[in-house]
Amino acid sequence: MSDKRILVWDLPTRLFHWLLVAALLGAVITGQLGGGLIEWHGRFGLAIVGLVVFRLVWGFAGSTYARFAHFFPTPARVKAYLAGRWRGEGHNPLGALSVFALILLLTAQVLTGLFANDDITYVGPLFDLVDKALSNRLTGLHHRLSNLLIALVVLHIAAIAFYGHFRKKKLLKPMVTGWKSQAEAAGESARGGSLPAFVLAVLIAGAAVYGASGAWLPEPAPVPAVETPNW
Q: With 0-12 CB in 10 A as exposed, 13-18 as middle and 19+ as buried, what is 82?
């Protein structure tokens, strides 16, 4: 039995996870440094838009343990986990709460960023759809949410370290390889998550990035030249 294994995380879920790690790291670094890197901050933000939308679609069309219905943290599941009665693969009920909180927070963060401005040279790709006063309020919210997002990510990393060190549960390795040994597992290999479903998720994510980029907005009217008096 020890040489057998089960598939927990499909490849699209793993790609989403690590691409999101890279995009978040890039967004935080460029956002903190600012200056000429603020344009890259915006690009990382658009990447996060695509990744979040992909994950939302994959949460319905992906394989067993990637589907929201499988790990949605109902009160009964949370109660069973806290009482030590929960058994299963994928996200446990407390981990699921963290996942949904992260998705919700990321959604709010990128939405506010799309309309934000830095009062110098940079404006979000959808800045022209709102007035300056609303953009300023959304910018302030964007900054405040960033601190909450960083705190949640730190908590997520701490939870992984806790489970690995104290409970001897390897959460990181399956997110890299996708597999767990059957001796460690409490379920069957994931099923579903077909190629057509993946293509559909990528297309919807691409459409979301296009919409968020503002590329569809009309070009701003040119500012008329002011003639200088010739005296």
A: exposed
Nearest alpha carbon to residue 91 among 222, 197, 187: 187
Q: Is residue 218 part of a domain?
A: no
CATH code for the domain of 86: 1.20.950.20
Evaluate whether 123 touches 117 at the Cβ level (below 8 Å).
yes
The tens digit of pLDDT for each residue in 45-90 reads 999 999 999 999 999 999 999 999 999 999 999 999 999 999 889 9
User: Whole-prediction pTM value?
Assistant: 0.92
* Three-state secondary-structure class, residue 230: coil
> Domain containing 92: what range?
5-213
Q: What is the pLDDT of residues 199-212, one digit of tens each?
A: 999 999 999 999 99
Q: HSE (CB half, 13 Å, CA atoms) of 153?
A: 16
Give 136's contacts (C-beta < 8 A, 6+ positions apart).
117
Q: How far apart are CA 42 and CA 123, in angstroms?
A: 9
Number of residues written out for the chain:
231
Picking from 43, 41, 7, 11, the residue whose alpha carbon sits closest to that of residue 27 is: 41
**What percent of the chain is predicted at pLDDT more than 70?**
94
